[in-house]
Description:
Layout: H1 2-13, H2 23-33, H3 41-60, H4 82-86
Amino acid sequence: MDHIDSLLARIRDLPLDPRLDAIDSAVFDGLAHRSVAHVSSSAMAMVAALSLGIGIAGSLAPAAPAQAATAFPLGAPSALAPSTLLGGR
Length: 89
């Protein structure tokens, strides 16, 4: 384990790559040149209205009553399972 520590210490003591000085400006230049897709306000209004309509329709539609499923997909729980041992008697 000391070998890894000495390797990491040697890496820490190495001088920094001079290209790292220009990385901030390169990243910001790349972000500035990215093309951004603009969505019109009418398209956003249409999406908002459609979402609102779907939400209202989904809340008004009757749903089937909830029914609990078995929590053990592989059958009955084992007598030595931690959940049964911690449950107490």
